[in-house]
Amino acid sequence: MKISRLRSYVQFFSFFILIYGGYIGLKLGHFLPCFSCPYVSSCSGHCYLMAFQSPFLGLELNIRHFMSIWGLRVLKMFFGFLVLTLILSKAWCGWICPFGTLQDWIIYLRKKLAIRESQFSWKFRDSLKPIKYILLILLIVLPLLIGNGFLHKDFTLPFCQICPAKPLMPLFEGNISNIAVDITNPITMIMTMTSVVLAASFFVGLFFKDRLFCIFCPTLALISLFQKIGLLQLKKNVNSCRGCGNCQRICPVDIRQVHLEREKENVLNQDCMLCLQCIESCPHDKTLAIKLLHKNLFSSSQKYFTKHYVKVNKGHENTIIE
Amino acid sequence: MNFLNFILFILFLWTSVLYAFPHDNHYLWIEFEEGEKERDGAITLPLQIHFGRFTDQRQKHWRLDSLRAYYALVERNVEEERNFYELPIERHNGILRIKISSWKSNRFMVFVRGVSIHNGIANYYCAKTSFVLFGQAPFEKKKEEMTRYHSIDRKLELHITPEFNYWPQTGNPVIISAAFNGKYLPEKILQIYDENTTFQKLKTSRAGNVTYIPPHDKKLNRKGINSFKHNIIVVRESKKNTRHVFSYTLLLHRSRFAQKHTITGLVLFGVIFVLVFSVVLLKRKSFAL
Predict the structure, then answer these.
(1) Domains in chain A, start-ordered, CATH in brackets?
(2) Mind telling me how many Å the CA of B204 is from chain A's nearest CA?
(3) What are phi and psi of A249, to 5 degrees?
């Protein structure tokens, strides 16, 4: 079976388990390294970012409570997140994340309508990279400020309040209540309006640019801090690479380092979501491989490439079909 | 001069009335403070005890005989008779306080009782409130033995349904019923005092209950999401030489949903969608793959 098809099946299954699993009483905890949005009432496991910022399980704590059981609870949540991150690393983004799956479905629709993807220049693409780390820093600083009385309590869960997943994901259970403007006070009004504006902008953006939100995703940034010690690794045999550039062209998040790398074996990039399309599209035997504890799970091969990517035309030159 | 005499006469009349009926409009009530997170994960909730009138006349130096405070743990789905434990009352800066601590998620009911006897009339005051505390300690700390009672004497009582709301908020209806010696009181006047909005009077139905919808409150809306205010519900009943005054403290947060405008949100979403889409259309040269 083609790996990308297998990935689609896994994404579909994960989406339904995470979005509707609550209906069958499934509880997967509050520390999932993916955008399984807690604003979906039937959600079976919660995105770790909510716990990370919250006053009950996360950093919105008074400084004197950190050296107590409340601080331990923050650590416990983080430990849960860390274990899951180490096991599946970036595969959470490419294979499980429901918001990532939604993005892939929108991309599929665009491709079916034969509409070209928007291209960003490398310079522009690189200038966007630090945004997710800035968001991550804000995710640490803002809850601490709220917890210690430096910011109004209505800023609680600052990222969740403006996250595009909050208005969009509950639509899958028929809930439109998060596409609303809350006029309780000026802070709630600004935050909810920002949320709606971002959701609408991303909704359009996701259609024209593959995995647009992943460029800004702070969970991806948090996972990438631990990617070097993760059990899953993307390896490249630099000696057998002929530099065809297929891996760069097919990458949905425009990573060119896999193609350009000439020294290091480990090519798991900070933006990578382990969709494995680079391995699939590599025509050279064992040049790219995904490894679990140094054990090969899947590696590139000419046979696989020819079978899935090359259309054999009798008497004519072969054509690449994707 | 005549005007001054008139003012003095009114003042004399007023003090005479106050002297004759010293606590006629007064009641005992409970006020919540912010819960405190303990180092071991328990949550401690301090409650203030007041006497006088909630909105305009808090008595600073008051004294009631036999002032006692009790709490009961209310187990989920358990209807059997509860045990009541007496709580120590502390005085700090002239304010009386009781503290309740919970190491896990527990539902509490708190009563404070006091008596004053004046001109041969016994005034029985009782204040009640109920709440949930979400303690997170891994185990219960050893604490002093408390005096346990199988019941406490409270002839007049107010019952609120739902009593243990996780997030009581303005705009959410509650059913209030008043009972004397276990019998519901039909067509009984209840007074509801609010920190920020107007005083209300409600009358129980023939069945002895009434639905109350706490009004939304702009002052509360301006505060943070966890802020709260009090509504004090008071009922009075007189029998021969006794007067019973009972108050229930309803803690209220601001409404989480009432101020959400979905239509405005959808319109904003649509406008931004069209705007961004138009920008993309203008910027792109072609759409073909």
Answers:
(1) 3-222 (no CATH), 232-309+316-320 (3.30.70)
(2) 32
(3) -65, -35
CB contact under 8 A, A154 and B224: yes
Whether residue B276 and residue A200 make contact (CB cut-off 8 A), yes or no, is: yes
Mutation site, A196, A209, A249, A320, interface B, largest B CB count within 10 A: A196
Q: How far is CA A73 from the centre of its chain?
A: 25
* pLDDT for the residue B80: 61
ipTM: 0.91
Crossing angle of helices A98-112/A186-208, nearest 10°? Answer: 50
Helix or strand holding residue A47 (H, E): none
**Contacts with B226 from chain A: Cβ below 8 Å:** 153
- Kindly determine whether residue A156 and residue B41, on different chains, have CB atoms separated by under 8 Å: no
**Is B198 an interface residue toward A (CB < 8 Å)?**
no
Provide CB contacts within 8 A for B190, sequence distance 6+.
B158, B176, B178, B201, B202, B203, B204, B210, B233, B234, B235
Q: Quick one: how far is CA B273 from the chain centroid?
A: 45
Residue B122 forms contact with A (CB below 8 Å): no
Confidence of residue B73 (pLDDT cuts 50, 70, 90): confident
Q: What are B114's two structure tokens?
A: 């006091």
Residues B90, B210: contact at Cβ < 8 Å? no
Report residue B20's pLDDT band, with 50, 70 and 90 as the boundaries. very low
Min Cα separation B92/chain A (Å): 24
Q: What is the pTM of this model?
A: 0.85
